[in-house]
Amino acid sequence: MSTALATPLSYSHRFDPRRKPNWRYDRANQLVGANKVPHPKRDDQWIKVLRKYLLAKKRLQQTYEFEYDWQYELADRYHSLWCAERIYSAGEEQRLRYELEASLLARVSNKDIADRYGIDEQTVEYYEKLFFNVVDKLDQRSYIAGTVLAQAFMSGLSNRTPEMMAKYFGYFAGPVVLYLILDAFDGAIPNPTQPTDIKRWLEHQFRLRMQANAVVGVTYLDASSYNISTLIEGYQMLLSLQYREKSTGGDDNTINHAVRVFTQQEPVLVGTQARQLPHRPGPAYAHGAVEPRVHELESVATGHAPAGLLAYNDPGWQDPSKRRLKGEIGGTETNGEDS
């Protein structure tokens, strides 16, 4: 007599080279959904703790009619774990979640993370172990880049998000660069205490933000042999602004100089994306739907406007077939249609 074998639950080991950061959370949910107990050897204490929490949450949901009642009771019983799940369930676009995850990737201590975001250290520990388990693999760059950061990168550079930038710079540049980009300001100079201090403080913060934005832009920009000279020129102009000792009055000031640098040197969108912009900076040949070819990119890199792009991107330009019908250009034989 044969005995039917139950289909085993999928299982992800902590040493799995392809494990997801939330592998313990998935495992605990599988156990609760299948009404199974943890495996005595395969499931560690963190999975057991989370399974107990999820079962308690399920019972409270069945006991109370309103969500705020069972949430209050759950938070009272499992404060730190409840806080960790609240951060995780908010979604990847929620600022606290992606900043906390970026901080873990940047090797920031649990205490420093807790102090920065106003949560307790145990909440940070629960979050890392159960929802974003990466600390033990931070030295494995291929795993972090290919598994942990892959989903954010797959959105494409044109759709880069604050989450993508925070995690990228958190892991590859560390906490100093991460928090500079997230905060926009730093404490390198004291806050102004007198009206005369305001200008110096503003100029420092402005230069700092210019540098941070330049780092972000150059990091995500796919430089090639055809646009590298443009990037170098833009960087040199930014350096000249950085070391300007003082700004002048009127329209010839540091901020206006910086605006001109970015509108003239920064690569701009073309085609449909460019037409959707409320303001379309850049040269005239960057506004059309025609993508530049290799020889045209070479011309752009040397500072010359390609004649072909200027012609095609002329608002008055019309398709040759329409111009032929108007008699503006000579006709050609097209299967007898023009006879």
Q: What number is the mean pLDDT?
A: 74
Structural Rg: 29 Å
Task: Tell me the major beta sheet.
Answer: none
Number of helices: 18
| Overall domain count | 3
Q: Give start-end ranges of low-pLDDT stretches.
A: 1-7, 332-339
Structure description:
This protein has helices at residues 23-33, 45-63, 67-77, 79-89, 95-105, 110-117, 121-131, 141-148, 150-153, 162-173, 175-183, 195-220, 228-242, 254-265, 271-275, 294-301, 307-312, 320-325. The protein is mainly alpha-helical and 339 residues long. It has three domains: 12-183, no CATH class; 185-267, no CATH class; 268-328, no CATH class. The longest helix is centred in the middle third of the chain and has 26 residues, at 195-220.
SSE layout and pairing:
Layout: H1 23-33, H2 45-63, H3 67-77, H4 79-89, H5 95-105, H6 110-117, H7 121-131, H8 141-148, H9 150-153, H10 162-173, H11 175-183, H12 195-220, H13 228-242, H14 254-265, H15 271-275, H16 294-301, H17 307-312, H18 320-325
Short synopsis of the structure:
With 339 residues, this protein is mainly α. It folds into 3 domains: 12-183, no CATH class; 185-267, no CATH class; 268-328, no CATH class. It has helices at residues 23-33, 45-63, 67-77, 79-89, 95-105, 110-117, 121-131, 141-148, 150-153, 162-173, 175-183, 195-220, 228-242, 254-265, 271-275, 294-301, 307-312, 320-325.
Give me some keywords for this one:
disordered C terminus; mainly alpha; 339 residues; 3 domains; disordered N terminus; single chain; extended
